[in-house]
Amino acid sequence: MSYGDLIRDAFVISWHNKFLWFFGFFAGGTGTNLLGNVPSGGGNFDGGDFEQSGSGASGLAAQLGPGIFDNVALVVALVVVAVLVLLLFVAMTLISQGALAENVVAIDRGEERRFSSGWRAGLRNLWRVLGYYVVFFLIALGLLVAIGVPIALLIAGTFAATEAVGARIIVAVLAGLLGLVLLFVIFVPLSIIGQYSLREVVVRQEGVFASVGGGYRVFRRNIGRSLLVWLINLGLGIGVGIAVLVSLLVVGLVLFLPTIILVFAERSTAAVVAGIVAGVILLPILLAVSGATGAFFHSYWTLAYLRLSTPPETPSSPDPSPDPV
Q1: Within a domain: residue 316?
Q2: Is residue 35, in this structure, part of any structural domain at all?
Q3: pLDDT tens-digit map of 33-85
Q4: Domain carrying residue 114
Q5: Considering only Cβ atoms within 10 Å of each terminal Cβ, which end of the chain, N or C, has fewer?
Q6: DSSP, res 122
Q7: Which residues contact 136 (CB under 8 A, 6 or more apart)?
Q8: What interhelical angle do 223-264 and 165-202 show, nearest 10?
């Protein structure tokens, strides 16, 4: 397998099929912080006043502030909206995983694909991808418990057995280093197997549990090449991340330069308007970059899976010549 061709093909597919960027935005790990500061009313609390004000909801409202119960409906509404947005992002992530995997495979085979075909593929594989994520979450959780519990017991046992500070520090540090090594040794192969298993679910239409075995077999047959693919992906991620960050900082500085100038000139209203305009221009750029990088890296792993899971074709040997009569 040519790793240069792998990177080139992933770039060509993601660049010439820009509808994949929509799915790449969600599949590329884009998240939204749905937790924020919840406003609450209140004031100084005095125990004596509480006793005089009576008990029950009216007394509690008098002590905590008249606005706290008025804001309950608002807080509940915000929580419901946050949960709905979170569920929407989860659903779009699941749809996008299936859409990208199936469409990249089809495009690599020379087929024509559009956004509608990608959307249908994502919906068709939604529940299978969800099952895959649940299974791998449980596997990862079990491995974390298997690693963390013995290390925690070792540290706790050392602290219970001796009061020597030096011994405690040495055991804690060595146990922590051992835990980090185990996490790296176990979870790097697991992440690679997870990439292959996702493609087993979508491309091969394997069952959820069968896909785990299929992903493991692909990894076991190609341990060295799989680790090299992972290292290349790591290097590409760091390089692309730095390049994107620097580029966005330069573009952001150019876009927000009028805002900065207006702020120093104490033109607050004009500065706000210029900042809003700059933000409106910058937001689509951020979304496009996020979608493009997500589509590229997803294509990279899909193509790597195809190259490694498909056995190379061996030329058939010619028929033996007939024996002379």
Answers
A1: no
A2: no
A3: 333 333 333 333 344 443 444 444 455 445 545 555 557 878 888 889 999 99
A4: 3-28+55-309
A5: C
A6: H
A7: 190, 194, 197, 212
A8: 100
